[in-house]
Amino acid sequence: MKKEDKGIIIKQLGNSLQEYSHFYLADIGGLNASQTSDLRRECFKKEIKLLVVKNTLLRKALEESQIDFSELYDTLAGETSLMLTNTGNLPAKLIKEFSKKNKKPVLKAAYVEESFYIGENQLDTLMNIKSKNELIGDIIALLQSPAKNVISALQSGGNTIHGVLQTLSER
Length: 171
Description:
By secondary structure, the protein is α+β, with helices and mostly antiparallel strands. The chain has helices at 3-19, 33-45, 55-64, 90-102, 123-127, 132-170; strands spanning 22-27, 49-53, 80-85, 106-112, 115-118. The protein contains 6 helices and 5 strands, in the order αβαβαβαββαα. The chain has a 5-stranded antiparallel beta sheet. A hairpin with a 2-residue loop joins β4 (106-112) and β5 (115-118). α2 (33-45) runs antiparallel to α4. The radius of gyration is 25 Å and the shape is elongated.
C-alpha cells in the first residue's frame, strides 16, 4: 500500500472516531463469510458501524486524535475490528448475544462514556452502562415522582370531598 493511501485511510479512521462518541475493539477473526455477514447485518440494524482495520493504521489514527488513547495500544494485536456507535452499551449487548452461538466476536477493549475498558471481562460492565440521556431521564423521573404523588393526593382528596358534599346534598 502506498504512503498516500495509508494517509487517506488514517484520516478517514480519525474522522470516524470523531463522528462517533463510543467505540469498541473486537476480534472477529475465525468467523466464516456467512457469520461475518450476519454480524454486519446485526450491526447495521443497531446503527453500529463495523470496520475491519489494520492495527498500525488504527494506532496512528488514535495517536493523531486529541484524546490520549495510549491505554488501548496494547490491545492492538492480532485481528482487530472497530465497532463505532453513539449508544455506549449496544455493541456490548451485540457481542454478548452474537458470541453465544459463534464464540466470536471477542471484546478486546472499549472507549465508552469517556472511559477505557480493557479485556473481555469488562463485557458485563459495558452492557449495564447507561448513557447520559438515560441517566438524565432517570433523574427527571425521580424528581417528578414526589410531585405526581402530591397531585394525585390532591385530586383524590377533591373527589372525596365532592362525594361527601354530593351525599349531604342528596339527604
